[in-house]
Each structure stands twice: as C-alpha cells, then as structure tokens.
Write a structure and sequence with these properties.
nucleotide-binding; UDP-N-acetylmuramoyl-L-alanine:D-glutamate ligase; Bifunctional hydroxymethylpyrimidine kinase/phosphomethylpyrimidine kinase; alpha/beta; six-stranded mixed sheet; 14 helices; 450 residues; Aldolase_II/adducin_N_sf; L-fuculose-1-phosphate Aldolase
Length: 450
C-alpha cells in the first residue's frame, strides 16, 4: 500500500552565525531553538569555532564568498520569514550581511564576547555594526554589548532604556537591552521602541550555566516573529523561554553547562505522561481505601511536568478525592490547573528541590503525626501563626514551605502545616515520582491503622 504524503509548511528562519563545536551556543543553539519553536531552521555559518563549556580554543573565519553563497542558497530556495544574526566576527562579514538587506524580521544579536569571556568580534568591527543595526527589526545587546554600542555605562534599567533609545537612533525599529550582566536579585530586560518602553522582570537563577543564552533568546524571538507574533509578544515569549531554559540548564561538560534550548517543547511533551501518572496514583489510593488520611476538605494528588513553573503545568484531581460510605472516590477526573492549593505547595517545594514532581495532602491528627516517624526520610513543618507581618495570607504556603526546607538538611518527604484559627492543619507528602508518593501514603496509612 502506498500512503499519501501529508506535508506541513512551517515558517523558515535563517540564522547567520558561528558554529559552536560544544553545541551550546551559535548555530547549534539557534537551530535547536528554532525547531523547538515550530519553525524550519536554515543556516549560514560565518566561523567555525573549537569550543566547549570551558571556553573557546580556536576560531576559523570562513571566506566571505562562502558565507555569501550560503545566504544566497537559502534565500533563493526558501521563503524566509525571519533572520537572526549572531557571531559575525569581522567588518567584512557584517558588510556582507548589510548588502543582503532588506531581510525580513531581522533580529541582530551583536555577539562580541562569549559567556566564557573569550572575544568573538574584532575591535575594528564594532563600528560596522551601526549599518546593520539600521536595518534591524530588533537588536538584542546584553549590557556589556550595549555599553560598547552606545558608549554608556549601564548599571540599572534607566541606563538600559537610555541605551535602547540610542540604538533606535541608529535606525533600529526596537532594542532589547538585556539585564543578565547587571547585578541584582532580578534580571531586568528593557524593550524600547519609538513609542514605548516595556520592562520584563525575572528572578535571577543562581547558576553559571548560561552558555548559549543570547543565541537562544534571539532565535526564539525570531521564530515567534516568523510565526506572525507582534514584537512585544515575541519578546515576552522568548524571555519566558530563556528564564526556564536557564533554570533547568543542561549539566554537560566540565565547565558551566548550557541553557536548555528545547525545555518548553520537552515540558509540553510530558503533559500526557504526567496526567497518566496522577491517574495511576489516584486509582491506587482508591483501591487501598485511604479514608483515615483524607482531610475534611478532600484529598488532592498533584503532579508537575518536569519543568513546571505555573499551576497550569500541574495536573491534579478536579474536585478532590472524598470519603464515601464504602471508601473513597475522586469527584471528577484529572486536569491541568484543577487544584490551586496543592499545586502551589508543590511548585513552592520545587523552588528548593526541582526533582520533586508529585504531592498529596493528608489530614493532620495525633495518630497521623505519630505515624510520620515510619516514613523513610526527613519530616519538616511550619506554623502559619508565626509568619512575618509582611507575608500575606496568600503567601503563607510559599513562606511556610521555605521555612520547612530551610529547617531540614535533606529534602523533606513530608511537610506538616500546623494550621491556624479556622484552618485545619495538614500533612503534604512529596515524591519525585508517583510510585514513590503512593508508597509513602501506604506507609503512613499502615502506621495509622496499626
């Protein structure tokens, strides 16, 4: 039997950049990010570098005729919807790209120095960037690169905005001045256009594994522009992806690792398996009849995708598991975003131990508290009545989980919430997989029943 083909037509993105033999940055990072974003990646390699997570050991610039041939080959055959530039190295290559303009949705990442500190742009080529910037839809310098381009010192978002305006005066439609190199607990990125300034804030991740961050961000933005997103939407999506890619970085190589270019698509792909794992756990608890552990408000089993950051990425029992005359049963099925309380608890716990993916809430009685000693692992807790005055009621869970983890040398297997006036106490069991979670529930139940 001959099957009919079923072709798809993704938008095409062209990256003009250097090759990173270590795979974390350059063309390799660009193509991974573009494909993960649902576009078709094409490339024109400007330089071949010998590098890894520890640094750049060598670099070979391709002849400009060869670079031009690559660009022409792509543009003659493909309907290119967006172009991003990375490592261009010398003024001749920058001039070559300028000669190819106009380029659709051109995102210019003015790569000058690698994350490792190795220089990737000849000093005399800095001035040549002005002509390319004048053709750009968006320019994405980090603070160090913006200082070179604008001759400003950038210490805060106000400085970044001023530098962005300078870049627009060079002719660019917009500038995104990135704040990753500016000290502070938050990373503040500033998007400047002719008529607006938008500030994006993310908590800083305590890691040195940022190799490929600039390449990944500019490629993600170019991909969203190729899909037809408005500029501010494309930038917001790219920044969100990078924040997650940095937190869940790839621990590869002997030096600092690389950002996780495909983190979002892998997280999305795990939704079905996560939901099924929660369903299996619910079925096991129903079969075992965990009535003695079910709180008055009901029990929830929750499971987070591997790289979950929001409640919408946590699957839980909708309507909770409740006691009946002949055991327990879930009121409804499992759905992402179904339960806020246990989902928030799980996400708060993952801030301290990202390996935790599953949680279940149990009632707190004297018998349950005594039985906690049967669990193989650390049990910690917190008292909501002791929360500081600046912690709101809504913020109690995040504060309390933080207190419990800080008081424990190891990641707790159970966290006790002592409750307060009008709110019953509870115990939340945690696990890295659903089988471990169910095992802990069964251990607790057996201790209570005995």
């Amino acid at each position: 039997m001959t099957r009919a083909d079923a072709p798809v037509t993704p938008p095409v993105v062209l990256t003009i950049a250097g090759s990173d033999s270590g795979g974390g940055a350059g063309i390799q990072a660009d193509l991974k990010t573009i494909e993960a974003g649902g576009a078709f990646g094409t490339s024109a390699i400007t330089s071949v570098t010998a590098q890894n997570t520890t640094g750049v050991q060598g670099s070979h610039l391709l002849p400009t005729d060869d670079i031009e041939a690559q660009i022409r080959a792509v543009r003659e055959d493909f309907d290119v919807a967006a172009v991003k530039t990375g490592m261009l190295a010398v003024s001749d290559v920058i001039d070559l790209v300028v000669d190819e303009t106009p380029l659709p949705n051109l995102v210019v990442d003015p790569v000058m120095v690698a994350t490792s500190g190795d220089r990737l742009l000849e000093p005399e080529a800095e001035a040549a960037y002005e002509e390319l910037i004048a053709e750009a839809t968006l320019v994405t310098p980090n603070a160090d690169e913006a200082e070179v381009l604008t001759d400003r010192t950038i210490d805060d978002p106000g400085d970044a905005e001023a530098a962005g305006r300078d870049v627009i005066e060079m002719g660019a439609d917009a500038a995104l001045v990135k704040g990753g190199h500016v000290p502070g607990d938050e990373v503040v990125d500033v998007l400047v256009t002719d008529d607006s300034v938008t500030t994006f804030r993310h908590d800083r991740v305590d890691t040195a594994a940022t190799h490929g961050s600039g390449c990944t961000l500019s490629s993600a933005i170019a991909t969203r522009l190729a899909h037809g997103d408005a500029l501010d939407e494309a930038v917001a999506a790219g920044i969100d992806l990078l924040a997650r890619a940095v937190r869940y970085n790839l621990d590869v190589g002997e030096g600092p690792g690389a950002v996780h270019h495909t983190v979002e698509v892998r997280n999305e792909a795990a939704r079905h398996d996560t939901s099924e794992a929660v369903e299996r756990a619910v079925a096991a608890l129903v079969d075992r009849d965990v009535s003695p552990l079910v709180p008055e408000v009901g029990m929830t089993v929750a499971g987070a995708t591997p790289y979950a950051e929001t409640p919408d990425e946590v699957a839980a029992v909708e309507g909770r598991i409740t006691r009946t005359m002949d055991g327990v049963r879930p009121n409804r099925g499992v759905r992402f975003g179904a339960d806020g309380t246990v989902a928030r608890f799980l996400l708060a716990a993952r801030e301290h131990d990202p390996a935790l993916r599953f949680a279940v809430n149990c009632r707190l009685t004297d018998a349950v508290e005594d039985a906690l000693s049967d669990l193989a692992g650390t049990v910690s807790g917190y008292d909501p009545s002791e929360r500081p005055a600046d912690v709101t009621t809504e913020g109690t869970t995040t504060w309390g989980v933080g207190e419990a983890f800080e008081a424990s040398e190891d990641s707790p297997v159970a966290v006790v919430d002592r409750g307060e006036v009008g709110v019953a106490g509870s115990v939340t069991l945690l696990g890295s997989d659903s089988e471990t979670l169910v095992g802990r529930v069964e251990t607790l139940l057996e201790a209570v029943e005995s």
